[in-house]
Amino acid sequence: MQLEELYQTIILEHYKEPHNFGEIKNPDIEERGYNESCGDDVKVFVKLINENKIDSINFIGKGCAISQASTSMLTDVLKGKSIEEAIDFIENFKSMMKGEKDFISENDFEELSAMKGVLQFPVRVKCATLAWNTLKNGLIKYQNKQ
Amino acid sequence: MLNIEKIKSDFPILKRKVNGEKPLIYLDSAATTQKPLQVIDAISNYYKNSNANVHRGVYSIGHESTEMYENARKKVAKFINAKSENSIVFTRNATESINLIAKTYAKKFLKANDEILVSQMEHHSNLIPWQIIAEESGAKLKFIPLIENGILDLTQLEKLISQKTKIISLVHVSNTLGTINPIEKIISLAHSFNAKILIDASQSVPHMEIDVEKLDCDFLVFSGHKMLAPTGIGVLYGKENLLEELPPFLSGGEMISEVHLETANYRQTPWKFEAGTPNVSGTIALSTAIDYLLSLGMGNIHKHEIELTQYAIYELNKIPEIKIFGPTENRGNVVSFNFENIHPHDISTILDNDGICIRAGHNCTQPIIRWLNVSAVARVSFYIYNTKEDIDIFISSLKKVKKIFYAT
Predict the structure, then answer these.
(1) Which domain holds residue B315?
(2) Which of B106, B357, B364, B376 is catalytic?
(3) Hey, is the C-beta of A13 within 8 angstroms of any chain B C-beta?
(4) Whole-angstrom Cα distance, residue B369 to residue B119?
(5) ipTM of this model?
(6) Is B217 a catalytic residue?
(7) Residues in chain A closer than 8 A to B19 (CB atoms)
(8) Are residues B73 and B95 in the same domain?
């Protein structure tokens, strides 16, 4: 197991200064995720344009470096996507984190490939995917309401 | 004095290497202890030589296994100084023991507006059963609050307890804070209000001498797996006359005397509470585990753990970013702490890379974690096979954590 691959500089930077951290007023979507085995707690807020396009994602919560960095990156990479695109992206990311798909670093989410290191630490994968699962739940609930 | 090298050599798992040839440093005995070869052999010997169902067969190995099973009960009784082995009920674990009392005692005695008292430092296993029973019976669940570094607010306790209090269920040693509660005092307080009291001794029976006669508690519970025995065997001690008054818990074979199609009579305590084929091998292994502990001496074990705990606290205090939780004195063998701005999970992962096993999270005590106003804690806990060298390795690995997180 390679610790350097887990705690890459980019992950520690996101952990120490997470992007889009903080509550926002009147979000279109608000969803809380909780990992009962470790106590990681995250809440995501989404603002939409025309009820479909993601204008911004913010989050609050407490968690380990992996979960906080992963959430911070999520708020960057899913911005501007439609709800359907975001759900696809989340599914794709989850498959990569399960090792079912190769980790492809595309231009627009290069930083996210730093999460590949987590694959060597199976007990930590759920830290990396907590916010993603949470956001997906929120997006699907929103879709069902429409 | 314990001969730790000799003790270590009895534990096969401590010889294994993890994560690229790192020796295993096991600092999570409050979660479960490792098992000595003697205990592992007891299980294997039972299945190789004596396996038969208990309290059934009239053939020789059936008699033998029944003897072994019942002798284990006598061993447990003697270990905690219970007057009679009929006071010892075998369960799966402390959780099941608490559920047994909650479900049977509540069914028989609790009415609406009666009060159940627990503390704010309970393990979930001594909280959730009472939440459910309170809901079912209409009794109120009240909480002894925490003060200072995590000790019980005894002034509040005296205000909370009343003639309405029917049962107090209290942890002896906190698995997160390490606090050793003044149970003698609280037991006599409970009795002065005619309340019954259950002691969760999961973190004390494995580590110090416990005398239920002297304590005069009504019920006391613990798990075998936290004291060298396998998982799946636990103990409920109850005063015999109280256990006799309670209705059965689970029902089926073994707990009955005479059965008709429509009705049945139950056996006396403790068998009334042991429906179905019990965990015979686990019980026998628990007996072997007790022999092992007694051969070391509970006093010596306690002394060794105090030394390790004090040493760990002393070394941890040298790292300025570390905050230790729990009382400064009179504490058990667990030390929970946080590293400023580093999540316990990250600490645990980095330590694991050096072969060190520590607990990270809420330790099944979410109300304590909330009271501490943190999201999780890291915890080390010690047992007979741990040494100061283990703590030195742990501390030097913690410095690595600091380097990884504070360097960038």
Answers:
(1) 4-30+297-403
(2) B364
(3) yes
(4) 14
(5) 0.88
(6) no
(7) 1
(8) yes
